[in-house]
């Protein structure tokens, strides 16, 4: 019964210059007006006090394992507070492996607790409401900030400082918190969860590079990648295009490792068979690249690494991207 709240680091826990150490989960929740009045039993635990940008796949899978145990033992839902910088990636990682109906809710803050209009308390209150909302059950991992509920699958951090930074450009929010009530407008389709506990050595070895294609890109940085990485995500122009001269290099890499084609634009899918010039999506797919559909480069990298860590081969990987892209 109740909610397990796992406190990581991030702005929500930063006390401000000269104000001492990071705030603990208990200190964060004590500062939330109206939380006690909700009457939700909270089991608050401090996990990794690191900035969002320093989290690792292994650390976050440990967080998911703690949350999963808590739900198996009867918690109605989970709230994770963390730095917002990597939140769109950790949320998707959790979503891919989360096997429960209970909501796995991630939140954070854009303003430090001592700042005027600090958003952490409102975000924690909203996150606890969503974690216990019957309407949010079965929706997987959700990102709750600014009184909006976003699907982990679609959410992006779109602004470096705004409290309205989290948005889902392809879909909009799944729901809103209105007058303290959770109003879910949509529940996204769920897929079979991937293995939540991949072998740690395999996870470590499953290094996936991300290459953002730029004007006049000769792909020089990709030299020797097959020796250091097990997979590559390419963030191409527009619908999934690269300079013609780069296409053979990507094709050669695709003979050694899965190479996934995404768009660097921030929303919309890559195409499959509309353009045919060298470096176009049709050309790249013919050279063995896997298209990511609507998955953005960061989320594609999370999925690819998890699949490689689970021992998936090229065909399984292409199938997984066809299903989830
Ligand atoms: N740099 C911070 C972090 O991700 C930003 C935040 O929490 O909003 O830890």
Automatic annotation (TrEMBL):
Residues annotated as catalytic: 11
Keyword Hydrolase: yes
Keywords: Hydrolase
UniProt-listed SUPFAM superfamilies: Glutaminase/Asparaginase
Domain L-asparaginase N-terminal: 3-184
MF (Gene Ontology): asparaginase activity
PROSITE patterns noted in UniProt: ASN_GLN_ASE_3
GO biological process, one term: asparagine metabolic process
InterPro entries reported in the protein's UniProt record: AsnASE_II, Asp/glu_Ase-like_sf, Asparaginase/glutaminase-like, Asparaginase_C, L-asparaginase_C, L-asparaginase_N, L-asparaginase_N_sf
Signal peptide start and end residues: none
Domain Asparaginase/glutaminase C-terminal: start-end pairs: 207-321
Family (UniProt): Belongs to the asparaginase 1 family.
PANTHER family, A to Z: 60 KDA LYSOPHOSPHOLIPASE (PTHR11707:SF28), L-ASPARAGINASE (PTHR11707)
Name used for this protein in its record: Asparaginase
Organism: Streptomyces luteoverticillatus (Streptoverticillium luteoverticillatus)
């Amino acid at each position: 019964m109740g909610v397990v709240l796992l406190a990581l680091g991030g702005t929500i826990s930063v006390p401000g210059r000269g104000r001492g150490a990071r705030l603990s989960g208990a200190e964060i929740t004590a500062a939330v007006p109206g939380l006690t009045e909700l009457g939700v039993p909270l089991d608050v635990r401090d996990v990794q006090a690191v900035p969002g940008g320093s989290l690792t796949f292994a650390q976050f899978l440990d967080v998911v394992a703690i949350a999963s145990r808590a739900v198996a033992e009867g918690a109605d839902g989970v709230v994770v507070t963390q730095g917002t910088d990597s939140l769109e990636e950790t949320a998707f990682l959790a979503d891919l492996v989360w096997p429960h109906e209970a909501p796995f809710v991630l939140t954070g803050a854009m303003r430090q607790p001592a700042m005027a209009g600090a958003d952490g308390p409102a975000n924690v209150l909203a996150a606890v409401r969503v974690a216990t909302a019957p309407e949010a059950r079965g929706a997987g991992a959700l990102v709750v900030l600014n009184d909006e509920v976003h699907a982990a699958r679609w959410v992006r951090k779109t602004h470096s400082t705004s409290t309205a930074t989290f948005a889902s450009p392809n879909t909009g929010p799944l729901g809103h918190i209105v007058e303290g009530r959770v109003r879910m407008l949509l529940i996204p389709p769920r897929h079979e969860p991937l293995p939540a506990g991949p072998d740690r050595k395999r996870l470590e070895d499953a290094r996936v590079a991300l290459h953002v294609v730029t004007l006049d890109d000769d792909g020089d940085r990709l030299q020797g990648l097959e020796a250091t990485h097990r997979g590559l995500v390419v963030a191409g122009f527009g619908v999934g295009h690269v300079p013609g001269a780069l296409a053979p290099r990507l094709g050669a890499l695709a003979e050694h490792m899965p190479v996934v084609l995404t768009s660097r634009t921030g929303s919309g899918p890559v195409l499959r068979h509309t353009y045919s010039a060298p470096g176009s999506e049709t050309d790249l797919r013919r050279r063995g690249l896997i298209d990511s559909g609507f998955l953005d480069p960061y989320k594609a990298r999370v999925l690819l690494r998890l699949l490689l860590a689970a021992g998936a081969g090229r065909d399984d990987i292409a199938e997984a991207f066809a299903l989830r892209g």
